[in-house]
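Quick question: what would this complex look like in 3D?
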Amino acid sequence: MMTRPPVLIPHASGTNRDLEAAQAVELAGGDPRIVHINSLRAGHVKWADHAAILLPGGFSYGDSLGAGARLALELRTWFGDELAVAVHKGRPILGICNGFQALVKSGLLSGPDRPEGRGITLTHNSNGRFECRWVTLGVEPSCRSGWLGEVSGLVVRCPVAHGEGRFVAADPGVIGTMSDAGLVAFRYLDAGALPVEPTGPAGGVHPANPNGSDADIAGICDATGAVVGMMPHPEDHIFDWQRPSGPPGGSGLPLFKAFVEAAR
Amino acid sequence: MALRIEVTAVGDPRGAGVVAAAELLGISGLSDCVVTRIYNVRGQLDVADVEMLCNELLADPVVDRWQLGASHPIGTPVEVALHPGVTDSDARELERAAAEIGLPPIEVATARRYDLIGDLTDEQIDHLVSGELGNATIEHWCRGVLEPEFAVSASADPTVDVIEMEGLDDEALVELSTARVLSLDLAEMKAIRAHFISEGRPPTDAELETLAQTWSEHCVHKTFRASIELRHHRADQTTTTSRHDGLLDALRRVTDELDPWWLRSAFVDDAGIVAFDDENDLAIKVETHNHPSALEPFGGANTGVGGVVRDVIGVSARPIACTDVLCFGPADLPSSELPAGVLHPRRIRDGVVAGISDYGNKLGLPTVNGSVIYSAGYTGNPLVYCGAIGMLPHGSHPTEARIGDRIISIGGRVGRDGIHGATFSSAGMDANTGDVVGTAVQVGDPITEKGCIEVVERARDKKLYNAITDCGAGGFSSSVGEMGEDLGAEVDLSGVVLKYPGLQPWEIWLSEAQERIVLAVPPANLEALAEICRQWDVELTDLGEFTGRHRLVVNHGQLNLVDIPMDFLHDGLPRRQMSGDWTDPTPHDGDRAEFDAPLLLRMLAHPDVASNDDIVHRYDHEVGGGTVVRPLVGPHADGPSDAAVIKPLGTSAHPIAAVVSNGICPRVGLLDPHAMALFAIDEAVRNLVAVGGDPDRVALLDNFCWGDPTKPDRLGGLVRAVEGCVDGAMAYAMPFISGKDSLFNEFDGHAIPGTLLISALGLIPDLNRAVTSAGCGVGDDVWLVGEQSEHLGGSLVNEMLDLGATIVPAPVTDPLPRYRAVHRAIIDGLVTSAHDCSEGGLAVSVAEMAIGSRHGFTVEVPTHSGDALSALSNESPGRLVLTAAPTDRESLASILGDGARLIGTVDGGSSLRLQAGDTSVELPLGDLVDAFTGRSR
């Protein structure tokens, strides 16, 4: 029997999709370990003892200072060294929703290097509201992430559930640079009518692009390709019965299998 | 001197939101609005500190711009800030985060600034601010720059006042009750006076408040325990008189009589409990939070969700889902018709939806089921029903505190917020209510409650406590008073962690500050509990102990606040003698009218029928990964769902899932509250059965929202509705396991329509067999289960066309066989889609199936003496529309028996064709979809 790589799922106060994330990791062959930030901070549990890190969704600290902002601060100030080591070693790191927001705001997923500083962010949805609905997204074929490359072109159907998921770049040049550098990991697709056969990019149009993200970007990776962040929730589509309607397909599980595989 | 930091987001969608809201208020001159966040900061910060604060914590480098001091106005600047004392969670969070990045200690007060750009009169600006941007119950505002007010720092020494009652005459006693918002009547005040005369001393302020809270309608359900004489005036001019000794007892007796094996706990605890699988039970509770939501919709609904979720935590369950049913005034009510002191129904709706969304989403609980009703009767007093479902291992919920157990509070800190909530909800409202009881309204803190969920689950699994309860209405007074009823308790409040100093002891004791759970913990387990709390960032206070001395003793250091025998506190309340009248309406069949295509489109566009997708998408209905049947169904996720199916996380070893549904039909109640109860039960049950739920595993919950029960015309209808519940529970063989009554739903002397919500919790044995209203295939047969009625009383079409019908359809006799048959057909896989007939009748039901599936339907039904309107839009209970493959026709017919008949086909065309007698109607699917979903947002 193959060993199950230990996957760290940090829990901050207000994290709430950690249990589903753990379920997806487990089903994908990993050994999920939900650990409170306080235990990591106290050193009771070590980041280094894990083969991969999954930052799950939720509302860490209530998102009072902006989604993921305080968790980002903690990742940077308390765990900067541990995370730098993990990135250096190429350990897969996946941030989903609030985890993605925290990765962006912590600087771990900051887009292309610019003299002016970080040029991308996740901000309020263009309709100003929290939005929960099923979307279709594709793994960008040109994405540089090694572990995502295993599922290049994969189409996933799963829900989004966020108020601040709109991916925005400081200027259009940033998007171009990111596309060219293979930093775009996921884009929202127009699912078209049933049967579910994506007909093309979402084209910025609601509801296929649920939040008004620039260039339909649903997720990105860093220059090493190990760190990946995404707004939608593939962990909520790992069983057939979770899908609202239509023919089989679009499971998020292959994504987690690639993630866990890369941790071996 | 405070530092003022302004942060503005580029392209902030909230500015456009203000412009849109202004238009809805009839203000067209606002061309744009810039929204600015303001942080007033006190502390020893140098320039580098301030830059760090702004760049690291306050402003996003891509979308935000920050500056110090007040920026030059772009339009008319208006600033809004919370009253001192109202929880400012952004400020508290910033203070904590600043400490984390190593800044000196700071104090923060936040505000919002709106630069209103355009051509506006002073009146329009005032209207916009009071009607949309600020809420005077919790906020204040001004033009220009608002002087910051930091957290309250009143520091009066703790004192205990005594209240002389001995010399007071009747009038003075009633006056005392009113002045202190005690909501006690004369008999109750006299009982209290007599008790303290026998004790040889006057009561303290805290004792009077404790008794008022414990004896409040909200906490003790005086009306539901009263002895009531009902005079039922019938249409034939006869009157029958009956006596009802305890409405609550009547409901409990049915449950005791039915007593199914899967019933774990009914009525005795914070929530009802039923068996789920071999290892786990499900807990459910539905509450109301009407008055707070009327005054401060966001906070009221927010804490409504928080409160009902705590009820589920209070039976040791981990919450897994939420529901909500909402009743508002008409969203398009002209401002000129809005009573003084009332927020506009649209604003109440938007605030309530935002409040539910905020709390449920942040707790990580999917909001999976609900409905919304609009009626002028709810304009002054909206209804906000919040439900929560949880799961717990069977036998894991301890319920007996023991002598010597510590009284432990975990969770939120105590502030002045929420004082008098229990007593305030036990009286009617008027234009001044907001000013008088502003402190009763609170804004919630879901992250603290989330911590309580995690701590209680772990403490339960380690068996660290002997009893647990939610700290809700009445605060510590209620939770400690109830937990210690059989033992007695001694409490010292001096160690309670406060949000800010200056609270008087009685305020600490009575505060209904949110997010607290009280536990009875053996001293030996205290450290283990404290360790779990530290782990999860949850604060813990040791309040005292359960004594065995049968008295409630409360101290604040050396000061004694309360010393009352438990038996007087809990049994000293005189039983109320009340009387009610119910008059049946004169029976009319109403005018006849045509059924035509425009009418069907109007019915689909009626706010009670039309899609609620704009609300549903604001609730996270997916978190937990267990949503099997969601609120919107079909390939385009725009068909209405009958009920929610939820698969709790961690139970994937078997295919059993939970089903949750609701039934509510206040239009019927205006004519016949007894029928309303039967119809609401039937609606909840048929919704549950429609998705695949097992009718032999259904538990019911009642929620009565009514007017002032001391007025006989209100109470009469309530008694009739309770009788209907009792009869319905027996007829359907489904026990009530929990319930709640919210009375005094009146504004300025006008009662709401008596409204009963029935919630149903059941099981589906195999989630893979769940069906929706949108799963049909082209060529399927269309079946109608159940009997039509020619009576339109209480129906949507009766109201829309003002027909004047007063005869309601007959209730279902012997409902179980039909629902068992439908269930069997669904579980056998014979049914491709199912949908119940409710508002709008068969026509709306079939139209909704066509909308959800995007398939054309052809349906034909016979009429009663040529009346197509009643044939297509009667709301007779007990009916479901099913679709099934023609190859399964015989097997389905043999299962469904005589109660079902073929009425048409899913014809694969692009229109809906309805035929009743000589009347035929054809409408393209696109028109149906537009009418159903095109409600102005």
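Answer marked as accepted. The longest strand of chain B covers residues 30-43.
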